[in-house]
Amino acid sequence: MTPAPRRLTLIGLVGVLLLALTSIPARPATAASPDAAGPSATSPNAAAPDTAYLMAHFTGESPIGEQIYFATSTDGLRWTDLNGSLPVLTSTVGERGVRDPALVRSPAGDRFWLLATDLRIASGKGWDAAQHAGSRSLVVWESTDLVNWSAPRLANVAGNIPSAGCAWAPEAIYDPANGDYIVYWATISPLDGVDKARIYYSRTTDFRTFSPARMYINRPGTQGIIDTQILEIPGSTGGYRYLRASGDGQITIEGSNQLLSGWTRLGDLSGQGLPGSQVEGPILHKFNDRNEWGLYVDQYATGRGYLPLTTTNPAAPGSYRVRATSEYDLGASRKRHGTILPITQAQLTALRSKWGGTPAGVNRIQSYNYPDRYVRHYDFDARIDPDVNPLVDSQWRIVPGLANPAGGTVSFESVNYPGYYLRHYNYDFVLAQNDNTATFRGDATFKRVAGLADPAAVSFQSYNFPDRYLRHYSYLLRIDPIGSAVDRADATFRITG
């Protein structure tokens, strides 16, 4: 019931105003402005509803797979890769590779942070060294609009943990009771005679300064826990304010009404045929337009990437249903251990404007002396043809060279067969899946040089046979030494969109 209005004297009015001014809560601490250039693509608008989704992920242990990829969706099940399935953020710090990204939004919605594991298995260091002598730092980016991001920086969160071997799979959640963020991650270290992964946590207000790490989750005995993710459940559906999904031998679901204590085990996904020996990296999220929740799990054992499950009662593990393949589409790239963030229509538009449209980095390779013909794959052979159908058989991602990504070299990845590259084999060319051997990387790497027949065009010198160049001969691709004018023309190409 609305009370009747009261008449205020001037003195009473002044008193009310003073009381109001002294009652305004202090503004929560925010991070310094990101040093990314360019104006904000979207203005914070707390009233705008979330109508779409942003997924950040990595793709695997390839030279560019351990970086940050973005995909967007309007229904949370069908995804479109941004930037032509190429990375949108690349780490230049620490191990120069990142995995397991987590997106964090401030309560006001005016700032975002992206946390990731500082790890690059593609460098050849191996899993044992990565676990027991890896980076103790996380990689952090920040943004005000999801489009313009700061340079990456390292946060040494596990430095005070005795004999810490790594800091993996970071996540963060805002703690309204404390007015800060709880950042949590897995660290492998010996404790009480047991060397295993445990979850530690730290507190921060700005993702620059962190409190000393403290133990968060320590499973009994020798059972480790490699990752966990917490989701706040509006209305405490199922009787809990928070749910937690963890990789601890199973994908275990827990509930609590507090962030750091009071957790109750509710069950796991073994009943759905998804034991922890097959899946990890869970993502819990709520669908924007209905009382339904999603749980994505990374099928790491088979290398197939994410698989979505859905439920209307996220606190009941037995209610999660594996979606049929006809009910979802994960886009062109393989999606591994990542994060899903609800976004507004304006944010979706800005993201697609920045990284959508004609995919960045996707090109065709046009013959110099047969300009109606383009390099294409056909039945895993490589040739130049006119009127290529389907067109995507002649589209390539020209990526940093697999054998020497920092040396100005390139490799050619198929658009419709991600992970497959042009390589020479007995001087002939084939389209083959990257097996990550040194021989494959060398055979699939080329130095881009000025065109041998026309300096305004390009030629491609073999990385491991530098006296030979990519050329066509009877319309088939091969690498050969180049001598005559015909040879030079056959070895010259133009890169087109």
TrEMBL record:
Pfam families per the UniProt record, alphabetical: AbfB
PANTHER family (alphabetical): ARABINAN ENDO-1,5-ALPHA-L-ARABINOSIDASE (PTHR43301), ARABINAN ENDO-1,5-ALPHA-L-ARABINOSIDASE A-RELATED (PTHR43301:SF3)
Gene3D superfamilies registered for this protein in UniProt: 2.80.10.50, Glycosyl hydrolase domain, family 43
Keywords: Hydrolase, Signal
Protein name: Glycoside hydrolase family 43 protein
InterPro entries: AbfB_ABD, AbfB_ABD_sf, GH43_arabinanases, Glyco_hydro_beta-prop_sf
Limits of the Alpha-L-arabinofuranosidase B arabinose-binding domain: 364-495
One MF annotation (Gene Ontology) recorded for this entry: hydrolase activity
Species for this entry: Micromonospora zhanjiangensis
Signal peptide stretch: 1-31
Highest taxon of the lineage: Bacteria
